[in-house]
Amino acid sequence: MKTKRQKSLDRWTKQKWRTASGKKSSKTGEVYAPAKTIAKLKSTKAGKKKLAAANKKKRAATKKGKQHAKHGLHKGKKR
Q1: Residues of the chain above pLDDT 90, percent
Q2: What's the CA gap between 68 and 71, in Å, rounded?
């Protein structure tokens, strides 16, 4: 029987993670997110704004040499 953490990891692994452009983050500096989340964000003006802000924060953190950026895109999501 799997633990709660193992089940969560299984769900996370099954999601298709990508960038908004579909290109590598190392080339574009974009954040990775589940494809469903990106589609939902790209469908509204507010979502596009939120995605652009997250990408801006990700690029700034990458420029400083950081691997992870606190962009807030996943904030409030159950994990």
Answers
A1: 76
A2: 9
